[in-house]
Design goal:
Chain A is mostly helical and 137 residues long. Chain A contains 8 helices and 2 strands, in the order ααααββαααα. The first copy, chain A, has one domain: Arc Repressor Mutant, subunit A (Orthogonal Bundle), CATH 1.10.10.10.
Chain lengths: 137, 137
Amino acid sequence: MKKNDEAYDTGCPIAFALKMFGDQWTLLVIRDMAVKGVRTYSELLKGGEGISTNILAQRLKQLEENGIVSKTRDPNNWRSFLYELTEKGRDLAPVLAEIVLWSGKYNLGDNAMKGTLEKVLRNRSAFEENIRMGRIP
Amino acid sequence: MKKNDEAYDTGCPIAFALKMFGDQWTLLVIRDMAVKGVRTYSELLKGGEGISTNILAQRLKQLEENGIVSKTRDPNNWRSFLYELTEKGRDLAPVLAEIVLWSGKYNLGDNAMKGTLEKVLRNRSAFEENIRMGRIP
């Protein structure tokens, strides 16, 4: 695996899971949009796991082509773009929820983040519904 | 993305989903073990999406290191190995189930396989329980 395909270990349960079962960048981009409400390229670039700008650009293009992300001009800054999950993208909420639960069981590292896990454990339906409505869960 | 990182489109819902959100090989190996009951290297190599032997060897090693797959000598053929999901690997059953459901909604291709989708739709608990017990669901 190429060096620049490797993510930093931030302790996020989703990053933890995907580090184990393959390339993680695409789901990390989806996570940033779904769980953190990120909308811009520069915020996605600062996602925490150290994605490079060329990988981010490639993955966003692929997500757009696959109908998971939509890209629109920022009405407040015509030179910028806003990225949003489509319904198809937001429908990945249950996949994210299950990955979070699995990682919660198996990520025993000291740096394991528990915030999202607790939200899913407390009220999974609300977690998924918020993502489906485009709200931060 | 490298050419040899691309899977053939077999219509499998899990392959469909992962083609969209990143490198798919690792979860395809897990799928072959969990859903098809595959145990040997040569069967994994024939998984359908055209995994290469060097990628398969690398992914199996990584899965073993991460405690998701165990590797033992085949008692009937001492020169061969058997691969099995550990409890940690089998606990990915709900992730697989959600990916199958999502793909079932969005893979509208003529070659979309429906068998696993129907099993999950009919009785999701049984699907997951079978995987957790090491049975073909």
